[in-house]
Fold this sequence. Notes:
Elements: H1 9-19, H2 22-60, H3 64-70, H4 74-79, H5 81-93, H6 97-110, H7 115-130, H8 142-151, H9 161-181, H10 183-201
Helix pairs in contact: 3-10, 5-6, 6-7, 6-9
Amino acid sequence: MSCWVPGCPALSMCRGLATLPITCLERAKDLKSRLGILLHKPELGHRIKTSGKLQLSSRWRDSSQEALEWRESFDQLLKSKSGVTAFHTFLKTEFSEENLDFWLACEDFKKTRSKTKLASKANRIFEEFVQNEAPREVNIDHETREITRKNLSGATSACFNEAQAKTRTLMEKDSYPRFLKSASYQDMTKQATSRGISKRSHT
């Protein structure tokens, strides 16, 4: 909209802008665009975090009722596929998932029937989890490590029993209590409790 009033500030501004080089105007537009992106970044980050939390909740929604049983005992947790998955996710946050992976590998190892496969699996598990400086070395004492090493010479389904038991005890006494206190597990139990109350109020 043009202004024909002499001395109008708007008219002076328009004339001033008209005298500016095109490059200056382009830079001003670019600066405005960048400022807009920076101003919106925190909001964008908040949206991403919120959606991630929602996805995590929906992943465990079907297991929320079962989650109440996991606090009864460590055995109860290990019997549940959803419980093992939830516990594994928690252990990843503590960078100690190798303990559970070793325990699961031992459980699978015990089901092996072929003697040839038994020997090759035993060596693979030992190299990955048990030997000194193994890629995913579990926290067991030297004596247990040496007993397991000797067991490999005549591998049977029981050759990892002692090492597996030590790792299980470590998880039960150390990681399991922290898992029960974790925010993710507390959220699941709250969901289960609120659903139980909601169901009772509708009956």
